Amino acid sequence: MADPISAEERRRKQAQQRERKDALRREMLRTMPHGKLSVEIGVWRGEFSQILLDELKPSKLCLIDPWGVQPDPDGGASLAGARSQDDMDRIYESVRERYSTEIAKGQLSVIRDFSLPALHLFDDQSIGFAYLDGDHSYEGVKADLEALLPKMIEGGVIMLDDYHRRGWWKDGVMRAFHEFLGANPADLRIKAIKGAQVAVQKL
Ligand SMILES: C[S@@+](CC[C@H](N)C(=O)[O-])C[C@H]1O[C@@H](n2cnc3c(N)ncnc32)[C@H](O)[C@@H]1O
């Protein structure tokens, strides 16, 4: 059985890490496009969505996530607490409940689907800011970046989480991102890098 003190210590450390990461993301968001149609791909419990609303004041924020049980190479470590489809259904409902006021006002919508079919719903050159934090595999990030690019307005920014090699995805996020830059050498520029966050702007 796990030692209750070390479990408590682990939770405290995780909370501290989350606070540090959120502070860093908030700071970075202040330099990102404000007041535009924005999307978050990979929403989980919708905690970062509130920070996006606070900092970007988007014309509308669209939250995209299938909220489905998926094979997790981390053995559940990255999505702790969601073991069954019932858990995911509850999390989805809690996100809808949390943002019910914004949904009613038309300031926020929730799209329960994978990123690629969801992005088909957007007009080309319509999105001002996208936060990419869904499928972290090389193939997933590559496909999402390719699908996002035509949807972004000129000056629009795509910001990625987990730009490092420490997770189960190994170099997947970095490799897909670097290839994306290489495939569009004259149309993209790095806007900011902080910690494991990287943001690229469409010119
Ligand atoms: C790391 S969590 C997102 C955390 C959230 N952005 C935050 O900062 O609080 C990853 C989420 O991506 C979702 N996801 C996985 N594959 C996806 C895909 N292809 N499209 C959209 N979301 C996906 C998972 O269901 C999970 O909720």
Overview of this protein structure:
The protein has helices at 4-29, 47-56, 85-98, 100-104, 115-119, 138-148, 172-183; strands at 37-41, 60-64, 108-111, 127-132, 152-160, 188-194, 197-202. By secondary structure, it is of the alpha/beta class. The protein has a single domain, classed as Vaccinia Virus protein VP39 (Rossmann fold, 3-Layer(aba) Sandwich). A 7-stranded mixed sheet has the order 3-2-1-4-5-7-6, sandwiched between helices. A hairpin with a 2-residue loop joins β6 and β7. α6 (138-148) runs parallel beside α7. The protein is globular. Residues 40-44, 47-48, 64-67, 114-115, 133-135, 140 line the site of S-adenosylmethionine (SAM).
Bound molecules: S-adenosylmethionine
Q: Which architecture name does CATH use?
A: 3-Layer(aba) Sandwich
Number of helices: 7
Could you tell me the mean pLDDT?
94
* Total beta-strand segments: 7
Low-pLDDT residue intervals, each spanning 5 or more residues:
none
Classify the fold: give the CATH topology.
Rossmann fold
What does the largest sheet look like? 7 strands, mixed
How much of the sequence lies in strands comes to 15-25%
Q: What is the CA–CA distance across the termini? A: 54 Å
Radius of gyration over all CA atoms, rounded: 17 Å
Label the overall shape: globular
What is the ordering of alpha helices and beta strands? HEHEHHEHEHEHEE
Q: How many structural domains in the coordinates?
A: 1
Determine and state the CATH class: Alpha Beta
Corresponding CATH superfamily = Vaccinia Virus protein VP39
Give the fraction of residues assigned to helices: 40-55%
Q: What would you call the structural class?
A: alpha/beta
How are the strands ordered across the major sheet?
A: 3-2-1-4-5-7-6
